[in-house]
Structures are given as C-alpha cells and as structure tokens.
Amino acid sequence: MMKVSQAILFELNNVGVINMYSEEEPYERGAKPYPSLPAAGIYLTICYSATIGAMPSPFQDPNGIFMDLFKSYMPDGPKPSALSFAKVFLAPLILGLVVVAFWINIIFFGLGDRSFKRDVVEGATNPRSVKEAIEEKKEEMGSWTTYTKLATVLIIVSIFVIVTRRPMIFDGWYDVLKRKPCGVSVASIAMTIVFFAVPANYLFCRYYMCTEPSKVGAAPSCLGWKTVNANTPWGSIFFLAAALASVYSGIHSKFYTLLIDTFVRNGIDKAACFWYGSLVGMILTILSPATALAKYVIPGMFLAGYKLESGPGALAVPFAAALHNQFMLPCSTPANTIIAGWGNLRPYQFLLGGIVPTICYNDSSYNGNNFTLWPVKPT
C-alpha cells in the first residue's frame, strides 16, 4: 500500500493537484526531499492502520505471544476469554482510532490554521483533475502484462503463506513441519526467493504457450536485485536492527531483571502496577519492536505480579496493552521502519503514541505457584 500511495501521489504531483514534497531544505545537499505534510499524513495513515488493525486480533503479534504466555505459564489458571481480550485491546483500539483521526486531520491534512491548508483545499476542490489524471494514467499503462499478472499472483501467494503459517485456530504449515521455530520472516524470505526465481515473461515456456515472446534472450526475473537494492531503505533497516539489539542488550545486561526486582522490592499495589506497567511498556516500545518485547519481557512481568500477590496479570496485562502504542517511532514496528524509509519520514512525526491512552483489564484471580518464568526465576 505504501508503494501504491507513492505512485498515486507521484501522478497527482505531476498534474499539479497536490504537492508531494515539502519546500524544506534537506539535511544535506542532494539528499532525498522530505514529504509534504499531506503526503506524510497518507504515509502515517498506513503505519497506524497496520498497528491498529492488529490490536483486536488474538492471532497477531504481540497478541499471539501474549496468549501463548497465558497458556504456557498459567496451565491451571484461567485462559484469556474473548471478553478479557476485548477489555485489554479494544479499548486502546477505539481510543487510538479517535486520536489518530484528530492527529492526522489536524496536523497533516490541514484542518488546523496552517499554511499547508491551502494545498489540501486546492486538491479537494479540484476532483475533476484528480479523476482525469487517474484515467489518463490508466490509458497510458494499457492492459495487464505477463509481469503484472505474475507479480499479483505471487503477492497473493505470499499473503496466503504468511497467514497460514500459524493461525492458532487450526494447524498451519509451521505446526505440521514441527521443525525449529521460524517466524513470519521465514515465509517472507521464501517468497522473496520465488520472486527472484520466477521469470517475468513467457520466454521460459515458449514451447508450452501459444504466445511467442516479444524478444528472444534471457528471461529476467520478476524481481531483480538492482531494483531491490535501489528501493530498500537500508539506513532504516539498520535502525530496526539496532532497535532489536537493544532488546537483547536488556536481557544480557539483566536490565529487565533489575526492573522487575525493583517492582517486587517496593511492593507496589495493583493501581501502581497498572501505571508502571503501562508506562514501562510505552517507553520500551519507543526504543524497540513490540513483538520482541512481548516475547522476552512479558514472562518476567507475569512473575513480578505473582510475587506481588496481585495476580500474574497485574503488571503483564497493562504492559502488553501499552506495547500497542507502536506508532511512537519508526523502530517500534517493522512496518513503520519500512514506510519511514520509503517516505523519508522523521521520528518526531511518529509521536502520536505518546497521547494514546491505554486502558486494560486485570485478572488477579490466579494465585498458583506451579510455573517458572525466564529471565527471573522464583525464589
């Protein structure tokens, strides 16, 4: 959707309907120009939609990890019901939608008294030019080529492979293979290899097709490395890798252990658990992807709640709910990282998450002592 949005903005920019780039001077001469605020609003809408869309689903990470922890570490306790999950994640979802609507419309789409309001109004009052530009481009592109058809099929297959990896409501191919753990990246890498391998025209099967190739020669692949290298925001990818490294640094430096021990030592009550859990979750997701935090930090949060006699969810549930404030910075989620890199968005434009309220549900009815959590072990 990011590349589709960029293509649309590029065409509308060419016909003068909207300004795709701002007049702000880039940080160095010859650097990629910054997007205009309306363009940044469109890019951030994609980021926020990806994050908010995953909130109510128990099958998307970090929710899937959170449910696994309930099942793994509380074998004799209550399983998270649909109502519990609704209380934990639907409230931030609804409040987040409201905040996103106001944030994007006021800051980026010109509802406030800003100079760029004129650009938005001009585009809105000229729908005929927009429609004409779209129709003109459609005619120019012509009918679908073999490459377009193959790429569309492979994209659909990619989505299918990722969705059926481990849907949790039935056994996916990950469960059937029963090999070493593999995440969504494994499916993505596999499909990328297929994109590199499948030719982009009929030349490879000229003897099996009625249509003769338009040009005799080597068949190019659907995806070439030069294209990938030129369009990949490598700086942002390294930024994401550094964000992941910060999670593992917290493990090996025993920072999370110290944090959890501090909560236990001070004997915080359930109300304090709510505020500290929400605050820590929100701060950490500024620095690192929420999925990694859910996997490596939530187990210790469960144990802290158990030691505090407030129930294992006292800290873990608000912490998990706060991880959904992934709009905070480009490194909070891979989708943000890639979109920020392609759109040349800057970190301060992601600061919506700081004002998204986190409402969560605590269930302290489980007081068992028959489970062990890492990295903090019960004494």
From TrEMBL:
KW Magnesium (keyword) present: no
Highest taxon of the lineage: Eukaryota
Membrane-topology annotation of the record: Multi-pass membrane protein
Regions that span the bilayer: 88-111, 144-163, 184-204, 233-251, 272-298
Compartmental location: Membrane
Coiled-coil residue windows: none
Protein name per the record: Protein I'm not dead yet
